[in-house]
Amino acid sequence: MRAQPRLIRFDPSSHSRHGLDGVIPKPRVFTGGARDLARSLVGDIVDPWSHGGHLNFVTVHNSTIRSFFLEGPSGRLEALLNAGSPEATHAALVCHPHPLFGGTLHNKVVYHTMKALNSFGFPVLRFNFRGTGLSQGEHDYGAGEVDDVRAALAWLEADYRLPLILAGFSFGAAVGLRAACPDDRVKAVISLGTPVATSAAESEVPRAYNLDFLHDCRKPKLFVSGSNDRFGPRAKLEAVVAAAAEPKTLIIIEGADHFFEGKLHELRQTIEEWIREAIVSFFPDPGRRSVRQDL
């Protein structure tokens, strides 16, 4: 028999929210120029015009956000890169939820996941799947999107030559982990709102995900879902995680739905605590830390 997953019921009352920020503001209409738009999106800007006057590089509090396109198997893929520390030990990729239901690289769960990973100094790449936003191509119901993930991982590894971490939310978790698990460059994976059940009555769009590949995925794995996630009912989710190879951690955030509405701070803190436990170990001297690169 396979070992049962480690189940943690997250209690936000026992954890501090100190230092958590990055709440995305409600959309607004802008009539000013690109500089005003950039300030509204990312805050105080330090000389973004030093790169030819184009809004491709924006520096915010010593962190650079780069907007660009990477080459995908069906055309260019729109991407955002949050640069990390020069001493970064890992680089990360975050994949967005189902594009036919509004999922993009700007999704709030994707954003907070990026912030959690970037807080360790990791450069973090987000991109739009084919046919989404400014990305070329057409939606391929999960098949071609796996190749999109592979292209993004290849870009990240070529640019940084660092061990990689993949995180995905919902659809992004299902296709992202399928690409990442057999990829030796990826050392750890994070699955948020793992889709183990679909609501076929609401849509004719096929959304059945086969997660059997997790049986052989021996990388450190974090699964985070809400206790009220209708696409991740507890019994089915626990069965999927129980069948997955070790090592694995399943964390349930009480009161959270599929989109972690009202629980994004808890989600971000959960990811950060797992990264510390699974990848980062501290020396007795709190001013120094060692990051495991064998993972």
Give a topology summary.
Elements (H helix, E strand, L loop, with lengths): L5 E5 L23 H9 L14 E4 L2 E10 L2 E8 L8 E5 L12 H11 L5 E4 L15 H18 L3 E6 L1 H10 L5 E7 L28 E6 L7 H10 L4 E6 L10 H15 L1 E3 L6 E3 L4
Parallel strand pairs: 1-10, 5-6, 5-7, 7-8, 8-9, 9-10
Antiparallel strand pairs: 2-3, 3-4, 4-6, 11-12
Offer a few descriptive terms.
single chain; 295 residues; alpha/beta; Rossmann fold; ten-stranded mixed sheet; two-stranded antiparallel sheet; 12 strands; 25% helix; globular; disordered N terminus
In short:
Helix 3 (143-160) packs across helix 4 (171-180). Helix content is 25%, strand content 23%.
General description of the model:
This protein is of the alpha/beta class and 295 residues long. It has one domain (6-18, 36-198, 205-281): Rossmann fold, CATH 3.40.50.1820. The protein has six helices and twelve strands. The strands form two sheets. The chain has a ten-stranded mixed sheet, with helices on both faces. It has a two-stranded antiparallel sheet with strand order 11-12.
